[in-house]
Design brief:
Largest sheet: 8 strands, mixed
Oligomer: single chain
Radius of gyration: 18 Å
Strand content: 15-25%
Shape: globular
Structural class: alpha/beta
Number of strands: 10
Order of helices and strands: HEHHEHHEHHEHEEEEHHEHE
Strand order of the largest sheet: 3-4-2-1-5-9-10-8
Distance between the termini: 19 Å
Length: about 270
């Protein structure tokens, strides 16, 4: 475990994924303090020589807030329209905050077809590497205004956890960090089972680990761990470490880089 901690602390190129529940309050409004803290943290990491890519959710949630919509959306075209509004608002907020700390951002909207097409994938890879080399922060989201995979919660590419794993591969990242609302992975749902045991490191995603994540239809599984296990398998297979941490305070990434044991580490496979 100690060797793993020392290795990930040296990670130079890091993909950070944040979800809608982290970016917004329960009422749907943007958590400006949290986003500002994230912008400051990432800007400081960039200043130190680290290379960062941010994968963000939140387009639909922010769009609903912007349009003062209270009811859940059920119509797919309406969700796509709201996502188009929310994406503009979200990027405006990111651009404003990162600019305050002296950094520029570039919006990258991906769809499953880009990943699956060799030429499109090559173009996306070259573009993202160019942004990174120019010290511009790539901010990636699935293009919800066009693609409906995430809206429909389809598998393989229908969520930003999985998207972040593919982005990690595209940019040849050393480390993928996923923010969540728990302190890491447990062998059972800690909200239901007080005796659930915390798992600090996972070197092999076996059947027991997948079972601990919950079924896709369960409350715990829907909360994100099924997709996080999927992301870990994709990233680890390509030699990328992945860690799940509590996103309450984005500065927890400093703990990772200061060789502190936090969250749950999914250990990469040697390629």
């Amino acid at each position: 475990m100690e060797n793993h901690i020392k290795r990930i602390a040296k990670s130079k190129r890091i993909v950070i994924k944040v979800g809608s529940s982290t970016l917004t309050y329960e009422n749907g409004k943007m958590n400006l303090k949290w986003i500002d803290d994230l912008a400051f943290l990432i800007s400081d990491l960039l200043n130190s020589g680290r290379e960062i890519v941010l994968v963000t959710s939140g387009a639909i949630a922010v769009g609903m807030s912007k349009l003062n919509m209270k009811e859940k959306l059920s119509n797919i075209p309406e969700k796509q329209a709201v996502a188009a509004v929310g994406q503009c608002e979200l990027m405006y907020m990111y651009s404003t905050l990162f600019s305050k700390y002296g950094h520029s951002v570039g919006q990258v909207l991906l769809t499953k077809s880009v990943i699956e097409d060799e030429i499109s994938l090559s173009n996306a890879t070259n573009m993202m590497n160019s942004l990174i080399e120019s010290n511009i922060l790539p901010i990636v989201n699935e293009n919800d205004a066009i693609s409906i995979e995430e809206i429909l919660h389809l598998t393989n590419f229908g969520d930003n956890d999985t998207l972040s794993a593919y982005v990690s591969i595209i940019v040849s990242a050393d480390l993928l960090v996923l923010f969540t609302d728990t302190d890491g992975m447990y062998d059972d749902d800690p909200k239901k089972n007080p005796d659930a045991k915390y798992i600090p490191v996972i070197e092999n995603i076996d059947e027991n680990i997948e079972k601990s994540a919950g079924d896709a239809g369960s409350k715990f599984g829907t909360g994100g761990f099924v997709t996080k296990i999927r992301a870990a398998k994709i990233a680890n297979e390509k030699g990328i470490d992945m860690i799940i941490v509590n996103g309450e305070n984005p500065n927890i990434i400093r703990d990772i880089l200061n060789e502190k044991q936090v969250g749950t580490l999914f250990v990469r496979r040697r390629c």
